[in-house]
Amino acid sequence: MRYLSTCAALMLVAPAFAQEAPDRAEGLAAWDRIFTVTAHPRCTNCHVGEEGQPMWQGLGYGPEAVHGMNVRAGESRIGAESIPCDACHVTSAAANTVPHAPPHIDDAWRLPPVELAWLGKSSAEVCAQLRDPETNDGHDIASLVDHLQNSAFVNWGFAPGAGRSVPEGTLDALVHDVTVWGAAGTPCAGDQG
Predict the structure, then answer these.
(1) Domain residue spans in the chain?
(2) In three state form, how does the secondary structure of the chain look?
(3) 187 pairs with which residues across the strands?
(4) pLDDT block averages, 10 residues each, the chain of length 193
(5) Residue 170: per-residue pLDDT
């Protein structure tokens, strides 16, 4: 089923590229918009490295603020080593309407894999990371598009409710930009062009 939904998604965008594939400049412009999303605190605060310590940067809790309660998701990425994410974050499809309340999401709360750490990384570092299946949790562009469209976390990130900040743009725009970036050959600014 996942394969079929990915194929269907690619067929929907294929007519846009049927005449001519996007060039490097268009791919780099799409990447710049993608990085604007990946660099937003709504994303980077959970896309952290091996320390497994989520952040509250740029979300009204003060600069460089570490997630409260000394949470460390550790190697498990779910907080099994300290306080599980779901001790406060709620796994449910309920709407997020109460400011500063634990957020709801219709999936098991966890941090992304260590390979997808974005916090503190430059555009060139994240670009190289996301185009390489060895460092992006095994995704090619088609499965990355599928992940964006179907991940409860990504969807929540664009609509977290209760007045929470969101990345610039929309999820549909991000999917489009990832598709353009992929069709252009996943260029990064530091590549030899």
Answers:
(1) 2-16+23-183
(2) CHHHHHHHHHHHHHHHHCCCCCCHHHHHHHHHHHHHHHCCHHHHCCCCCCCCCCECCCCCCCCCCECHHHCCCCCCCCCCCCCCHHHCCEECCCCCCCCCCCCEECCCCCCCCHHHCCCCCCHHHHHHHHCCCCCCCCCCHHHHHHHHHHCHHHHHHHCCCCCCCCCCCCHHHHHHHHHHHHHCCCCCCCCCC
(3) none
(4) 46 56 97 97 94 85 77 90 90 92 92 94 97 96 97 95 93 98 96 76
(5) 98
> In this structure, are strands 104-105 and 90-91 parallel, antiparallel, or unpaired?
parallel
The length of the chain is: 193
Q: Whose CA is closest to 148, among 119, 123, 169, 164? A: 169
Query: What would the two tokens of residue 48 be?
Result: 């952290």
Q: Please state, in angstroms and rounded to a whole number, the distance separating the CA atoms of residues 132 and 74.
A: 24
Res 13: pLDDT: 52
Residue 61 is predicted with a pLDDT of 66
Instruction: Give dist(CA 116, CA 86) in Å, integer.
Output: 21
What was the pLDDT predicted at 19? Answer: 65
Q: Residue 105 to residues 54, 59, 85, 90, 110: CA-CA distances in angstroms?
A: 17, 18, 12, 6, 11
What is the model's pTM?
0.87
Cα torsion 59, 120, 150, 98 to 10°: value is -10
